Amino acid sequence: MYSSLAARSDCALLRSRRPVHVCAAPRRKPSPARASLVSLATEFYTAWGRADFPVLDRLVATDHVQVDAVWAVGQDGGRENLKAGIGRFTSIFQNSRMTVLTAAADEDKRQVLVHWKFEGDWEGQTTESTGLSILDFDQDNRVCKSQVYRQLTEPEKRMRQQQQNKD
């Protein structure tokens, strides 16, 4: 009986041509701790895009570890190194900005997975890059580690090529 009802119901949906949305589990409101981590990650990337160093000083641990195959192979340590890298990167572009597209937090691990987009103007054109990051937070709600996965922007590709041609 159930299978024939399901079959009739499926056929009716197909005939109606309405979109069918399937959800495995009902959406729950995020816990305050999870929402707080996502908010901090969003604030971190907004400050990153603007090279807002006073905000980054508040949000990033002094012993921060950056893992980024584009900027540096391996691990690069310290908040000051992170800020220097952000300063170099954002100085290439006019109107640089970062937007968090999606973020999901694991409050037990104190990690946030962030899908972000960078945009900036270079030589009169807007360039963009998207990437994924895993941000780890310490007990003081500061970013203590960031693992970044992204592609080079077009200006970075050109500058890297120019540097290789000089060498």
CATH topological fold name: Nuclear Transport Factor 2, Chain: A
Let me know the largest β-sheet: 6 strands, mixed
Q: Beta-sheet strand percentage?
A: 35-45%
How many E-type strands?
Answer: 6
Give the overall shape.
globular
Domain SnoaL-like: 42-143
Protein name: SnoaL-like domain-containing protein
Description:
With 167 residues, the chain is α+β, with helices and mostly antiparallel strands. It has a single domain, classed as Nuclear Transport Factor 2, Chain: A (Roll), CATH 3.10.450. The chain has five helices and six strands. The protein has helices at residues 2-16, 32-50, 53-59, 79-91, 154-166; strands at 60-68, 72-77, 94-106, 111-122, 125-137, 143-150. The chain has a six-stranded mixed β-sheet with strand order 2-1-6-5-4-3. Mean pLDDT is 83; it is low at 1-14 and 20-24.
Could you give a short description of this structure?
With 167 residues, this protein is of the alpha+beta class. The protein has five helices and six strands, in the order αααββαββββα.
List keywords for this structure.
single chain; 167 residues; alpha+beta; Nuclear Transport Factor 2, Chain: A; six-stranded mixed beta sheet; 6 strands; 40% helix; disordered N terminus
Topology:
Blueprint: H1 2-16, H2 32-50, H3 53-59, E1 60-68, E2 72-77, H4 79-91, E3 94-106, E4 111-122, E5 125-137, E6 143-150, H5 154-166
Parallel strand pairs: 1-6
Antiparallel strand pairs: 1-2, 3-4, 4-5, 5-6
